[in-house]
TrEMBL record:
It comes from the Eukaryota. The keyword Transcription does not apply. This is Prephenate dehydrogenase [NADP(+)]. Residues 16-296 form the Prephenate/arogenate dehydrogenase domain. Keywords: Amino-acid biosynthesis, Aromatic amino acid biosynthesis, NADP, Oxidoreductase, Tyrosine biosynthesis. It is an enzyme of class 1 (oxidoreductase). Pathway: Amino-acid biosynthesis; L-tyrosine biosynthesis; (4-hydroxyphenyl)pyruvate from prephenate (NADP(+) route): step 1/1. Belongs to the prephenate/arogenate dehydrogenase family. Its EC number is 1.3.1.13. It catalyses: prephenate + NADP(+) = 3-(4-hydroxyphenyl)pyruvate + CO2 + NADPH.
Length: 447
């Protein structure tokens, strides 16, 4: 289709109303950005919180309505930005109030249940175009992937949604709902499982890793900052993403299996077997025609060295078995996933996880050092044991689909780390900014 002219864009801005149901972190980000770009935006949060919501957003350029019915009746594009576990209930409630011919979409992180709810409850005159910003609310959307799903819609409607979304300055990635769920299971769900397991393991051994001399160096800083970043967020985001996506269950289960099997080889002292297994992994994940083999490494320990939560950051990296990073590459190998294939559709946290794993596998002698530590140095055994147990626990909770257990495990660990969140988020933001600049630089080099 031809690009829209400036006059056509202005015409859309004057005639279309954008509705957002759920003004939490992501809904607010969208409402602010759209209204600042000149779109007419209306939104709502829970009806019982109407007065508070009105007061909270009194200075904003968008209009607060009482509930999702009122938003739906007048909006041309309606975005459900609510908890994943509630999508069926919410669409059943507000969907039939959708304006005649409206376009409906959602921001939930797994699309199968969202699309199923839309197909079940929306009037047949409506169209369906869903979205997913692949970053958290504290990250600048500029340059980050934004998935767009033209599920049941005319090209003209898709063009309108793309035009609206262009104010986020994200990179548009057009996928089907199925492709989206498969890729995000490979990238997000397993990334979260790894960092959630680190947090739980530190809590189990009663350690604050920034206070313990073992966790020193850039790679350790990345682990600590990302883990705390996830635990400072809302539990339902991670629970919804993993539990509602069936592909995520397989990925998280494989991660737990890889962790257990590698740890078993470590405590059995099977050096040769561990090395042989990891060399196969290295060849499959990092040996082919991928980014790491053609360019400098995305991340290195020196780059990440300064992002420490320690009061006085000590110099130098300490050896570590890096079980969490060996296990992710082992999972990719076992599932036949080449993580570089998903870069176009990846979150900042996934790119960091890939970057540090790449560093361990592709820095000369580093993998040998990890294997030596894993076999000969017992100082990480207790941590690795607790990490293995934590990975199994998350896998069990996710495959049982138990939201309440997920919440309990998450919130207990969240409370353990809570006093450090503000500092961790500030340092984590700087770290992510530096890394994203580096990603951009690398992309420019490769084009
Ligand atoms: N946070 C993130 O990093 C990202 C999240 N997502 C996805 O986006 C969605 C929203 O996430 P996020 O903004 O972080 O979560 P929030 O919890 O911040 O936002 C959800 C909002 O919806 C409100 N809500 C619940 N029921 C209703 C209702 N009946 N009518 C109107 N509003 C209601 C919630 O109120 P209350 O809190 O009172 O329940 C809350 O304010 C989720 O599905 C998440 O998976 C996608 C990309 C990134
Ligand atoms: O980058 C990550 O993985 C995050 O933790 C933020 C996040 C959470 C949920 C999403 O659907 C998208 C991004």
């Amino acid at each position: 289709m031809d690009q829209l002219t400036t006059e056509q864009i202005d015409q859309l801005k004057q005639t279309k109303t954008i509705g957002i149901i759920g003004l939490g972190d992501m809904g607010t980000l969208y409402a602010r950005r759209f209204s600042k770009a000149g779109w007419k935006v209306v939104g709502c949060d829970r009806e019982e919180l109407y007065e508070e919501t009105l007061a909270k957003f009194s200075q904003e350029k968008f209009t607060i309505l009482k509930n999702g019915h009122l938003v739906s009746r007048i909006s041309d594009f309606i975005i459900y930005s609510i908890e994943a576990a509630n999508i069926d209930k919410m669409v059943a409630l507000y969907g039939p109030s959708s304006k005649f011919g409206a376009i409906i979409g959602g921001q939930t992180s797994c699309k199968a249940p969202e699309i199923a709810a839309f197909e079940k409850y929306l009037p047949p005159d409506t169209e369906i175009i869903s979205v997913h910003s692949l970053h958290g609310p504290k990250v600048d959307p500029t340059g980050q992937p934004l998935v767009l799903i033209q599920h049941r819609a005319r090209d003209e409607s898709f063009q309108f949604v793309e035009c609206l979304m262009s104010c986020l300055q994200s990179k548009h990635v057009k996928l089907t709902a199925k492709e989206h769920d498969r890729i995000t299971a490979d990238t997000q769900a397993v990334t979260h499982a790894a960092f959630l397991s680190m947090g739980v393991a530190w809590k189990s051994t009663n350690e604050y890793p920034w206070e313990t001399p073992k966790w020193i160096g850039g790679i350790e800083n990345a682990k600590i900052n990302i883990s705390l970043r996830i635990f400072s967020n809302k539990w339902h985001v991670y629970a919804g993403l993993a539990i509602t996506n069936p592909s995520a269950h397989d990925q998280v289960l494989q991660y737990s299996k890889s962790t257990t099997e590698l740890f078993t080889l470590m405590i059995q002292g099977k050096h040769a077997e561990l090395k042989e297994r990891l060399m196969k992994v290295k060849q499959f994940v990092f040996g082919g025609n991928n980014v790491a083999s053609k360019h400098d490494l995305l991340l290195n320990d020196d780059l990440l060295q300064e992002f420490s939560l320690r009061k006085v950051p000590p110099e130098g990296r300490q050896p570590n078995s890096h079980l969490s990073l060996l296990a992710i590459a082992d999972s990719w190998y076992n599932l036949g996933i080449v993580p570089y294939d998903h870069i176009i559709c990846s979150t900042p946290l996934f790119r960091i996880f890939l970057g540090v794993t790449e560093f361990i596998f592709c820095t000369p002698n580093m993998l040998d050092e990890c294997i030596d530590v894993a076999i000969n140095d017992t100082s990480f055994r207790q941590d690795d044991l607790n990490f293995t147990i934590a990975a199994q626990t998350w896998s069990n909770i996710i495959s049982f689909g138990n939201f309440e257990l997920y919440k309990r495990e998450f919130v207990e660990t969240q409370n353990y780390f809570r006093h450090m969140f503000q500092e961790a988020n500030e340092i984590g933001n700087e770290m992510i900014h530096t890394i994203l600049e580096r990603v951009k630089q690398r992309e420019q080099e490769s084009t």
